[in-house]
Design goal:
single chain; alpha/beta; seven-stranded parallel beta sheet; four-stranded mixed beta sheet; globular
């Protein structure tokens, strides 16, 4: 169903701002927007799109946002505890979740229960609780359309085909800014180095995840739950033109291609099942005379290896993987730990963790908080 009205979680981030561009271009009604703390941009967005609901996670900024928007009819709310109510507010038929981390889990489930179309750009939701979210989707009959370029590509390559005839999924990875380096060369890379992604403009956290290849590990786990397929390979594709592929039993491989622009998967998620005109530049093959593909280096980029191992072990191992990584990346961005300490921290927390199964949503969220606190304690003891 094509989106008529949308609520956006994370409207001031990279995905959120590009989603608003698509809404502006396609005439899609923006019912509500939410952001963490960028109050200036949030106010401008609320005014331009004449939203009905505006939410800010930082409660300390709630009073100021109310004052700024007092001359409008916008309903202003705040705090992470209000995200679920915001997610299902008003007449929105679609919820775009583009917040960073496991904070997106509860509002995504709220949207599923409300039978909204979920345009999913928060991969941590399925990494942390893929089985649980899938169960809610099956129970309430919801629809999840992936916004990640890789999963959007697979979604399109599966259209019109029998999913039972799929042999494997092939996720492409850019390789990040440190492709070709060995582990010793990564020891002293800086935050500035790690934030220089070669192809994509993204938020800080996902850019670091791309540099460690943890992001690709997350995407493998996400693909497993989105498509119900466990045979998934990863190839490094430096040009980011082939967004991902599906191989069928007859050895035919269907790929979705395009310029490296998130507006392509965002627009398709909102207009699906229709294809509409886009402002994204067309793919000019003459600009890409050579497309390359490489095996990922699991020794140098051990975060991808840890993610693949966590998926195989199942239970709450992926939840632990995500929780430990969230904290470790936060500490790296604050320059409290080194780049290779991210992998070391995640591996240590996975070694300590005893996997559980059958958790409720409430128990999952509680365990997520506990794992993050445990990771912080470990890192503080190291420093």
């Amino acid at each position: 169903m094509k989106t008529q009205s949308i609520n956006i979680l994370g409207s001031t981030g990279s995905i959120g701002t590009q989603t608003l561009e698509v809404c502006r271009e396609r005439g899609i009604k923006v019912n509500g927007i939410s952001a963490n703390s960028n109050i200036d941009l949030l106010e401008r967005q609320a005014r331009e799109f004449k939203v009905k609901f505006c939410h800010i996670n930082n409660k300390e900024l709630l009073s100021e946002l109310k004052i700024r928007l007092k001359d409008t009819s916008v309903t202003v709310t705040g705090g992470e505890d209000g995200l679920c109510d915001f997610a299902v507010s008003g007449d929105a038929d679609t919820l775009l979740t583009s917040v960073v981390g496991s904070v997106g889990l509860a509002p995504t489930v709220a949207g599923i229960k409300n039978k909204m179309k979920i345009a999913l750009a928060n991969k941590e939701t399925l990494v942390a609780a893929g089985e649980l979210v899938t169960a809610y989707k099956e129970k309430y009959g919801g629809e999840i359309i992936p916004v990640d370029s890789e999963h959007g590509a697979i979604f399109q390559a599966l259209m019109g085909n029998d999913i039972k005839k799929v042999r494997r999924l092939i996720l492409t990875a850019s390789g990040g800014p440190f492709f070709g380096r060995n582990k010793a060369e990564l020891k002293n890379v800086t935050k500035k180095d790690a934030l220089k992604h070669p192809n994509w403009e993204m938020g800080a956290k996902i850019t670091i995840d791309s540099a460690t290849l943890m992001n690709k590990g997350f995407e493998v786990i996400e693909a497993r739950w989105l498509f119900g397929i466990t045979d998934i390979d990863v190839v490094v594709h430096r040009e980011s033109v082939v967004h991902s592929m599906v191989e069928y039993e007859d050895r035919s491989v269907i790929a979705q291609m395009g310029v490296p622009s998130m507006k392509l998967p965002i627009q398709f998620a909102l207009t699906y099942p229709e294809r509409e005109e886009s402002t994204v530049e067309p793919l000019d093959f003459k600009k890409y005379p050579r497309l390359t593909f490489y095996e990922p280096d699991l020794e140098t980029f051990g975060c991808l290896r840890l993610a693949l191992e966590s998926m195989k072990k199942g239970g709450t191992m992926p939840l632990c993987l995500n929780a430990a990584n969230e904290v470790a990346v936060e500490y790296f961005l604050k320059e409290k730990i080194g780049f290779t300490d991210i992998e070391r921290t995640v591996e240590e927390m996975l070694t300590r963790h005893k996997s559980l199964t059958g958790l409720s949503l409430e128990d999952t969220l509680r365990l997520d908080r506990e794992l993050k606190e445990e990771t912080k304690k470990y890192l503080e003891e190291l420093s």
